[in-house]
Amino acid sequence: MQDISGHAPWRKYAQLVRKVTGALASKPHWRAPQVLTLQSQFLPVSHSGTLSVRDPEGELPTWALLAAPRWANAARPEELTAQASCGPFKNKPRPSPPPDRYGADKMAAGGAVAAAPECRLLPYALHKWSSFSSTYLPENILVDKPNDQSSRWSSESNYPPQYLILKLERPAIVQNITFGKYEKTHVCNLKKFKVFGGMNEENMTELLSSGLKNDYNKETFTLKHKIDEQMFPCRFIKIVPLLSWGPSFNFSIWYVELSGIDDPDVVQPCLNWYSKYREQEAIRLCLKHFRQHNYTEAFESLQKKTKIALEHPMLTDLHDKLVLKGDFDACEELIEKAVNDGLFNQYISQQEYKPRWSQIIPKSTKGDGEDNRPGMRGGHQMVIDVQTETVYLFGGWDGTQDLADFWAYSVKENQWTCISRDTEKENGPSARSCHKMCIDIQRRQIYTLGRYLDSSVRNSKSLKSDFYRYDIDTNTWMLLSEDTAADGGPKLVFDHQMCMDSEKHMIYTFGGRILTCNGSVDDSRASEPQFSGLFAFNCQCQTWKLLREDSCNAGPEDIQSRIGHCMLFHSKNRCLYVFGGQRSKTYLNDFFSYDVDSDHVDIISDGTKKDSGMVPMTGFTQRATIDPELNEIHVLSGLSKDKEKREENVRNSFWIYDIVRNSWSCVYKNDQAAKDNPSKSLQEEEPCPRFAHQLVYDELHKVHYLFGGNPGKSCSPKMRLDDFWSLKLCRPSKDYLLRHCKYLIRKHRFEEKAQMDPLSALKYLQNDLYITVDHSDPEETKEFQLLASALFKSGSDFTALGFSDVDHTYAQRTQLFDTLVNFFPDSMTPPKGNLVDLITL
Question: 120-262: what fold?
Fold first, then answer.
């Protein structure tokens, strides 16, 4: 490290800093913002560099080093630079959590900080409790004694409400809560609980709803601590047990630890913001109430006094045109502008998908009498070239034998083409099933690895793991390896997974059962099954690398190998996602990601905290796809958790995992009653439940393709399918929402006309309103047909729900306005609640 204190410019700058900081330090309430004002007088460091200065008069403050002006920096040797960027706070090392967690918040409050404060343990005391039994006092949760069975709080009963209220030493941003446990499993552990928080015990917000595993490990949960990306403080934390692991047992909590930020310089601005936020929302609720009830003078007076806007000006304009003036044509124009400006996009993204299955009937071609489409099969493989919209299918099991035929389906031409009846005769892979394929779309190449072999044909030669590549443009196969195990890759496996990273020209393969000579895989006397680990294949160098061995420990960085799982590669965040599968007799329901660049494993879900119906059922035959653009993973689940592939266990359900929101949603589950009583019409609407099928996804055109599989018919165990389906996941389009909004506006306009001029209203119904109706929707069509009854109603037949103090027309227009507002982003709309809902009885 070099001493630059001898440089005249730097010495002059250091003297100036000491002079100013000495004056500031003499002030009793000196704070960082004053220092920041000083920093703004200097230009930031002009070149990259971390500087450590050994100055004879003592080390300078960090801010002074970072804010050094150009004239002071000019004399620094270039070799001293190492870490800076272009701002006075960019250089300083930042501990977790990330700076944006509060930096912008405090800036908005009028101050600023140089680095994120450290998340630390928050002291608290027991404030209130619902009950306790015997010696299991609430204070016991303050001490972590996992080996002492009496060191816990236990409720006197399990009848709600049971709770503990903790009072923090001072207001803090509570980010995490940790629960300690007894050293053994215990029936009184909390299977379900909720955590609430707030500045007072009478008004709390739900911060967490979750449950504990019934084991001895501590568990830490992240609490909600932001509103609109702004942190808010709490003084009280309320823990509400809902269900214990023993259904009839009382609730027990052994130890509780809170962590977060209690630095007053951080918390106070957040507290100020939170107070202003609550006051502002209260005023906005009043404004909404006044306008709904047409208290014009009160509304205008409050808004003028507070200068708080109820909503976005566009919505104020919509209210003026619709509710006050009844200018319905102008309302339609405003809605059309909002749709074209993309203001309905947020609403669309929040809507659930609706599946639309279509059975594909390919064109027939004249040939030499042979089949012009793939036959019945299961255990086959498919990949799709999204650029040319071509699906490739290879191999499989038809119920009696393995297949070696190779097919291509053109989506544009709706036609199958047989590339090869037997790829082995063309220097390609032999007949096989339970293998895997992946496609390199950039280089137009297909790779295939692995297969299943019956125990009767296994020997040292047949158990070699061959590895092939098919070149689409030249229509040729190439044997890359006769035995990947000999080249440092996986042994011969089946039911594994394989993914392609086209950007880095890498292939990743994970899991699968390793085939051995010692007996059938179904032989209970066979040795313990072996599973393959995680391997990477460099297509450029044609070399293998073992990234993770199979691990039974399942530690933070360990992964358990399995068969029948899903593995997908996200090309944008460069992670592998692995879900489900089976290991020996255990069905796995964990979900984790693996960063291929950093070699890091992130456990998304360990499979133990799921609520029934909230995640896909554990199974062996999930088929999954990924959409990197939408950050979604799609899972078609077949076989249920029941451990036999019996017909009654084979059910279809389609799930979507939102990577950004970390949430699952079920798009559909097939109707079991319809399955038990199948009809031709139902079978034409969607594919029957199955397993051993294949599913591929065209991420450009947002279409799935499904082919074949095993329907699980116990009466026909050799039966396989050859049906071909497409699946589109549909959300309301912009055009649909625009039409629907126009329908709502014109429907209301018709009802107003019907009260004043029935003949004019009838003409309006038959023409203007008719063209906005979706006549393919039975419900909307029926509603439209019933509208004619409004022509025969008197004015007294119309009632205004919830607005007894305003006239009918104003109330009905207000309700229509509230309906239309729901399509706009939350940031533009009035508050969702109503003032009268705050009144408790």
Answer: Jelly Rolls (2.60.120)
